[in-house]
């Protein structure tokens, strides 16, 4: 009788041990495995759909919009206006009309039985400055022409004083190609009858 009771007790202990081992394994599995079900208190935030540009035929990346501005960056500043052109240097502007009554006297010639001045026409550039341009030409001058001269023909003379045609040609003999400016007038025959030197400082 005692032997039967001992066997029964051993059988009960064995069953309890197996149940305890199974419970421990189940507890470990439940602790290790995460809860597959989402929590009702913290639902997942919906994700906005992202537009995917259609791929080009060549496989190149799509170009950004011309009006789009990247986040965090300011739009580029407009280009500054072009600087105004600088004023031209002081001098003759040959686009201006040629002065009709002013010549630069370079030399003279007695050919043809009449004294002729070798002159050059031109334009006015800086105030008070006559700038010769173009070809040299011949203009006959009367031996009785009314001529007024200043410096350098008459030294230290700012105001015009009368001189003769021979005095003018004598000065041109010793000072050729100076190109002094004169205002002139032609008579009906096309000969200079009045010649006034323009004083230049």
Question: Could you characterize what this model shows?
Answer:
With 201 residues, the chain is α+β, with helices and mostly antiparallel strands. Helix content is 20%, strand content 26%. The chain is built from 2 helices and 6 strands. It has helices at 2-32, 165-174; strands spanning 102-109, 116-124, 130-149, 161-163, 180-186, 192-197. It has a 5-stranded mixed barrel. It is elongated, with a radius of gyration of 57 Å. The model is unreliable at 19-34, 36-43, 55-59, 64-69 and 84-88 (pLDDT under 50).
The SS-based structural class is alpha+beta
> What share of the residues does DSSP label as strand, in percent?
25-35%
Task: Report the end-to-end length measured between terminal Cα atoms.
Answer: 157 Å
Helix % is 10-25%
Using the alpha-carbon principal axes, give the shape.
Answer: elongated
Given as residue ranges, the uncertain stretches (5+ residues, pLDDT < 50) are 19-34, 36-43, 55-59, 64-69, 84-88
The chain-level mean pLDDT equals 72
Which strand order does the major sheet show?
A: 1-2-3-6-5
Helix count equals 2
Order of helices and strands: HEEEEHEE
User: Cα-atom Rg, whole angstroms?
Assistant: 57 Å
The tally of beta strands, per DSSP, is 6
Instruction: Characterize the biggest β-sheet.
Output: 5 strands, mixed, barrel
């Amino acid at each position: 009788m005692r032997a039967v009771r001992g066997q029964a007790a051993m059988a009960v202990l064995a069953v309890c041990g197996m149940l305890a081992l199974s419970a421990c394994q189940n507890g470990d599995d439940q602790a290790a495995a995460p809860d597959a079900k989402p929590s009702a208190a913290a639902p997942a935030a919906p994700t906005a759909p992202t537009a995917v540009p259609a791929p080009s035929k060549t496989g190149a990346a799509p170009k950004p919009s011309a009006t789009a501005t990247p986040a965090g960056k300011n739009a580029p500043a407009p280009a500054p206006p072009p600087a105004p052109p600088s004023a031209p240097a002081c001098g003759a502007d040959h686009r201006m009309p040629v002065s009709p009554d002013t010549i630069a006297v370079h030399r003279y010639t007695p050919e043809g039985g009449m004294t002729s001045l070798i002159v050059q026409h031109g334009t006015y550039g800086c105030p008070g400055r006559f700038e010769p341009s173009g070809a040299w030409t011949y203009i006959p001058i009367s031996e009785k022409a009314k001529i007024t001269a200043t410096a350098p023909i008459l030294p230290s003379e700012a105001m015009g004083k009368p001189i003769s045609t021979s005095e003018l040609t004598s000065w041109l003999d010793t000072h050729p190609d100076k190109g002094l400016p004169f205002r002139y007038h032609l008579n009906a025959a096309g000969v200079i009858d009045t010649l006034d030197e323009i004083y230049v400082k």
